[in-house]
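Q: Convert this sequence to structure tokens.
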Amino acid sequence: MAINQDNEPMQAFRSRLADEIVDIPVRMDPRTGNYIVLWSDIQDGFENAKSVRKGTSLVPFITNDNFEQIIPLRIAYHPGIVLEVVVGGSTQAEPTAIGRETGDHIHILSSPFPADFNSMTQDMTTLTTTDYNANSQLPVKYSDGMPEESQSAVHSFNQLYHSYFQAVMTGQEIQAANIIQSVNQHFDGLQAEMEKNKTLQEQLVQMQQEMLQMQKQTLERLAIIQGRVQALLTQTYELHEYPIPRLFIVLPKEKGLIDKMKNPITDQYRLYFLCECGMHTMAEHSKTPPLIHLAKHEGYDVDRPTEFFERYGSYILTLMNMIKFGIIAASVIVPSLASLKILDGLDTTKEHINYIRSNITPLVDNTIKALQDLKSINTTGTELTMDAEFDKLEALEGADLRQLESYLTVKDQGRVGNLYRIVTPEGHVKWHLREVVELNRGNYIEETGRIEIKIESSNLARQFYDEMVKARGIQELDITLYWDATMDDLRSLAKAVAKANVISLTIDGTHFKNPSFDVINRGRRFDPILQLASNTGVRSLQLKGFDDFFHRTSKPSMTLAQKFRVFSMKLEVFDEKTFQSFQNLLEDGPLLTTLDLNLDHQYSVVEAISSILGRLQKLESLKIESRGRSIAASVSQGKMKVTGLIIRRLVDFDFDQYKFIRKDHLCNLTRLAIKYTPDEDPLADVLLHCPRLSHVQIGCKSERVLAIINRVISTRERILQEERSSCLRTLEMMIVGLKSFDVLADCDDYTYIQSILSFAEDSNAFGMRTWIRLQNKMSSMDNDPVNDFIRQHGWSIVFFDENKTKNDTFAAILDDIPSTRAAQLESLRFNTINFTASGFIRLDKIIQRSPNFKGLGLNVHLSEQGSLEMAQSLLSQYGTQLFSLELYGYVEKWLPEIASSFPTRDSFPNMASLKLKSNPPSRCIPWIVAMISSPSQILVSSSSDRSLAKNVVDKRSTRSDSEVTGSWTKLRRFRLRFAKLQPEEWRQLIQAIDFSVLEDLGFYESNFSREQLKLLIDCIPNNIHEVPLKTLDLLYTRLRYDDLLFAELQRKALLVTIEKYVLRDIGNKILAFS
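A:
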């Protein structure tokens, strides 16, 4: 809904003769309290306003009970809709192009009136209702003594006369309308001379009448075209009848054919689909309605063009005339060809698309002529008038649309023409670009009938509900309401869900507050949700962010018998009222099988549930989460058996403190997770008292890992020695907090060890895999806990990352691991500055004796010639196994050498992480682009150093097809620190980034600015449902604080955390904020 600066509602209007939207203030009728728009206000905004239309319907004036128009005249307010004003003598079928001016300048067509006017008229049979012969030019005789100024005026009038006919016959309606205005001005200027010269008067009057006649015929011609096109646009289809877009045009394929249209049978054509944008895709606050335009696709070659045109010729001719002249029909706007807006969105990087853009008018005209010539051949010379031809025209049936694709050469396997099918609020099936569907950050998984969407206003919500109801087959709805929804808003949602027969509903109410304007419904705000669950087919209900849910539901709604089988809720408030309401809700859910709760007061909830378990006869599964703790239980016949626990510390296992967890409950415990390092004795106690425990996870400090592993192993051996059975199969030693190990993460000030032990059934044997990231200087002393772990279980190491050891200690320790069991080493990452030549020899020996080795990560310090040669040797030897590369030191000096030796990603096909910690020279930008590009991207060379860019391309192009597979691992991580790049260099880098798998991106302490952020946001695709980007490091950049840009980034990349310490202007000071 449009509002002005004073937050008052506005009604949007547009003239049928112009694209501009005019907002007119809305007034409130004091008698009825309804919003209205005064007719006088409309007339002030549109001169000669005659009527107002909504689509094809007339908007009537408001009347009283006796159906008398109320004075002053007024119409009803239509929020969110652009009404059309009929101006002057315009009619319902009024073309958009006629009468629309582009400026004050009138261009006079200089070429003489064509001598072959008769043949031109015959060629355009379908565009005229009768032949018109204007070949005989009327000689304009000047009277003796006629002033030179008058002679010039007569000459100009004659030029305008012929220019007008040429403009009309070539379809230049805007030009023709402007010429008419100029003709009238010249005619008025010749009044004095006409009074003296009767012959001149007769000639000019006749010429003017002929122009008026031609104008009338033009309007009749366009009215016929518009009527037929409107019939096509309003044709509706069921979903199964509409497998391919119905709107398309056909153009000659090659330049050389533009003047060779006499034999259409042998000519080649290409079909281009149209995106059906219209009022139903108009953004809420936009004043300009979207226009139909060519889809973002290169088009499809037409096979068997003769057969194709014989079947679809009349239909195509209508569509070609539609884009030539423009039309407003069926809530869509087709721009006239003269405006070139039909070409908006085309990819101009393709050569043939540029050709189309430059020659669209003659291409359209020649297609029309080819179709007319084909009609003439098929009718054996019989003249076919426009009326006769259109009488044969029928809208395509579903079968016609399904067979259309058989005439096309389809090379891509994606959606036809990059278009996406939706249903409009009126129930019409339309084909749109995917980004149109995703305007509300929505995702439709057609295979499962699931919609995930985030909506920001009630108006947009109503539009979505209408589409959802008519789309059919929607089984699951996950909706986030990004505004403070009222009871009426939730009632609308419930009504739509019921009509659409949604089975599984998830509502995110995180953004709900306490609406001050909905005070009357404060205590029953969420009633529609419970009523929905009791009266419809919803079987699964999940609520997020409803913190005061039980305070905003009435008692009658609580007593409704709930039909849902799955109930999930995240709730923070759990006071006495909530406790009682919660019990009432569960008691009235006899069909409930699964209960999943996330609450602050975990144990009070368990107590509440325990008291009514006997009445929940069908309940099978219970899960309760609270402040990092989690209880999972199976339920049978009202009895709870705890099967899984996540606790912060082992002291939380105190049975006396938490009475609801009784020892008999734990007899069925199968999974236990402890977030922080436990003591060994209590842990052994748990293992002894939980005989069915099969999976244990422990977040543990690295120095305690060895002791806890050994205690678990010895406890399990004790159980087996006592001839008891042990169900323990897996022990996971994780990072503190139960964090998983990331092999691409940077080293920090801590050492991390993650181990997974797999135990055999009723045996002491076990397998083991270990990941180590070593930051502290590792000692060779026996009392070093990490060294002790390596000595005892070093055989289990699959990944080792070190950054601090000196004098080849790292290689020595690995080399000294006892070979009691087969080595499992798969990957290493190390800093080359810590190694000598002898250290590399030992390291290479370790790799050679590790049969499973497949990955190497290198942190390369480029300080001198020796370090460069060492780096080149390592990269040459292990390049195909490289998964991580970090270059730092004197990068500006030595990076060109690296880039020259390894110019393409084919040198490092498995690299997933790239980090540069220095300002790269301009000549290396093409190399960085090559490293971060996806396999499908084309390397764009930098103008700053053509030689290196050419080298990058040449090295790749000279390799054989077997060597260049065009496929490599896409980057998950890219960091560029201390860079000071030019805008063009930033553009090349950012546009090369592949966001389909990238999780970590950073430009720490660089000159990355607002312009680069805008470009980065634009480059994040809309067609990825969930962009994987999790971290964006913008610390100490030149970026100033911009709420809107950060919000837009968060909208596109929902998972991202922005690490920023950016500048913000406050008064005359610039402060930094993190």
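DSSP finds 29 helices and 43 strands in the chain.
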